[in-house]
Amino acid sequence: MEWKDVIEFMIAGASAVQLGTINFIDPSAPVKIIKQLEQYCNQMKIEKISSLTASYII
Fold it and tell me: CA–CA separation, 43 vs 23, rounded Å?
């Protein structure tokens, strides 16, 4: 799982995404994903990540 997957799940309608098993592979993955999501939102001028839920933003 990576940040792009989180974006896709949210656009498809998810309001939350679990990052459970990835913690066994890379314990720092959630922190990395959050930072990358923040960068994406800044780049796309998205003020609230919740606005991605069930949207058409790509």
Answer: 27
In b/e form, how buried is each residue of 13-50, taking b as 16+ CB within 10 angstroms? eeeeeeeeebeeeeeebeeebeeebeebbeeeebeebe
Full-model pTM = 0.83
Model confidence pLDDT, tens digit, residues 5-31: 999 999 999 999 999 999 999 999 999
**Cβ atoms of residues 37 and 3 within 8 Å:** yes
Closest residue by Cα to residue 52 from 31, 29, 3: 3
